[in-house]
Amino acid sequence: HFSACKLGHTAKKLNLLTLYTFSCKYLYIAIDLMLSWKEAMLTRFLPIFLRTEWGNLLLWEGGLIKVELCQAGHKPCHSGPVSQLVLDEGELVTVGKDGFIRVWNFETIDAADSVDDTGLLEVEPMNELHVGRNVSLSFMAKVHDSGQPVWYAQDSNGAIWKLDLTFSNMTREPECLYTFHSGRIEAMSVSPITYLMATTALDRSVRIYDFISNSQLSEIKFKQGGTALTWAPCAVNPKGGVIAVGFEDGVVRIIEVYDPKGLPVLAGQTNTENAEINLKQAFKPHATAVTALAYERNGDVLATGSKDKTVFFFAVEDEYEPIGFICVPGPVRALQWSPPSHVKSTLLILCENGFALQVPAPIPEEQDTASTYQIKNLPTQYFHFYSIKSRIKVKNSPLEEEIALREKEKQEKEKAKLEWIKQQQEMGKEIEEEEPEEEPKEEPLPPLYVPEEPSPILCGFYSAPGKFWLSLGGYDSGFLYHCAFSSNDHQEDPENRQDEPFEVIPIEDTDNNPIHQISFCTSRLLMFCGMQNGALRVYPLQDKDLSVNTLKEYWSFNVHDNDYGQIQGICSSYDDRFLITSGGDGNIFTFNILSPEDVHKELKAKIPSPRSGLEKEKATEDIEDPNAYNIEEVKQKKEYERIMKEAEEKKNKKREELIALRHEFLFLLQKNQELPKHMQLHREVYL
């Protein structure tokens, strides 16, 4: 990790301090600023070199390409893009995505010229260094440590390297200083009993961090990238060591983290690792990426959601057993079980395309899974969000005044007409039907805008039984919408529904910067919001309910990258002492939610002890083939094979019956032939 600058924001009731971030981006910036003014000025008078995507170097002169440089045999300078050029002490250093650093004679290259029509000139590097396998170098910088030059290189596959480019007999091997996720962090969760957190990303790794000591404890890699993760509650595992992870190929893996020092030590061996990760179970409920995982409040059921528009339920036991799945109207965005304060245990399902659903926890004993795992009789309530933002924008605007004025004029005309009719009736005059007067043409009012494609649901949470808050992106961003399920609407086609929220709270400066993540502290007196622009907002709530007044004031902390640092996850530690955020920029920040007096108390993360007999267990069989059948496909394949087997058995039985009848018929024919001529049956009788 690398320490980031402490935030300058302070608050009377809340003291948030950035502790650390796992990323090399800040090292990149810090070292880049170490270049002296003199070095920067020198670069203005050098020939222009251009690195290419195919690995060669282009030498420019007078706005034209003078020559293209390659190695002997027209071999490219690098096997892939050249990410950086550095001029160091009269030598040209090239940094490649292929993991090589090559040093070239600058004078030779400066004087280079094309020798044939190909425009290529073959040159050989003076020295080269291969940093390592699966290394993709993107940036390198030089610093002086005790008078000795040291190079630091940024590996876009998730590492920082310390390099020695002296190329002498005493040259040290490349040293990997730190490793971290490459790319954005897809999911994060914290331990329910200690100061540990788990993260996963599309780099195919799952990592365990101790956010008290700011260190990575363990890492495990799989064949596919991780897309969802949740730490199992204590109701599932009292030791707090079980984690469920979803992957982009639809596989869910149950892993357990433990302290290897708790295992029996074999003769001649020692357990020195801080923590280890063990694969406990792997199953594939979905055909595409898993996007959400949620344990039921009692820990009896695990729900998994996916982009394949299904939600699968598993009975949580020593081995997770499938209960069944339901189909939903859109790709699943998030899953949330109702809190213990609700009488019934229900699951809130949020879909990307504007649908929200509520279903009860299925009972395993009531499900018929003989031929399919699909649950077709699970009571389901639907909410299909219908945009009302244009109506909200009309309020307190000139358009609203124009609508009110026209309505008032219309009412006054109707009132005047009724009074005239009444006067005529009192005078005893007959009222003849008059041709309606031509009303002056009014300029038509602009129609209320409703987006053709529903705005995506970004996040949401329960507020009461059957009620929930939503944050949306796209056109409908800028508000929190309070919605409710109707009690008698499950018969209507969900696609034809147009459900409107019953309460709306405007959120400041979120029209183009919607809320992507919402979390609460245990007391629910603080609401944490992760924004699209990487900022963290903290709303102090007067009570546990949201209102326009309670969301007027907030603290804002710009922590993640403004352009691509969208906050992917927000979690508070089990004791509400710390807050952790992870973002699309690959960074993780922890914040202290303690008073200054509590900050100095010594805290320590405790790694869960291993299960009894873990060392004797065989390695769990993993699902490595991304095209492997999912659970339902396996069931359907078995059902198809069963039907085909039954059909084949039925055919074989009929064949045996036909063979028996044929033998009986031939026997009767023979008997008929043995009879006297006058007693034999003619052939026409039995054909």
From TrEMBL:
GO biological process: cilium movement
UniProt xrefs under SUPFAM superfamilies: WD40 repeat-like
Keyword Coiled coil listed: yes
GO cellular component, one term: axoneme
Classification via InterPro entries: WD40/YVTN_repeat-like_dom_sf, WD40_repeat_CS, WD40_repeat_dom_sf, WD40_rpt
Keywords: Cell projection, Coiled coil, Cytoplasm, Cytoskeleton, Repeat, WD repeat
Subcellular locations according to the entry: Cytoplasm, Cytoskeleton, Cilium axoneme
PROSITE patterns hit by this protein: WD_REPEATS_1, WD_REPEATS_2
Pfam families: WD40
Positions of WD repeats: 78-114, 178-219, 283-317
Acidic residues bias locations: 431-441
Record keyword Repeat present: yes
Stretches for region Disordered: 425-444
Coiled coil: 630-664
Name of the protein this chain belongs to: WD repeat-containing protein 52
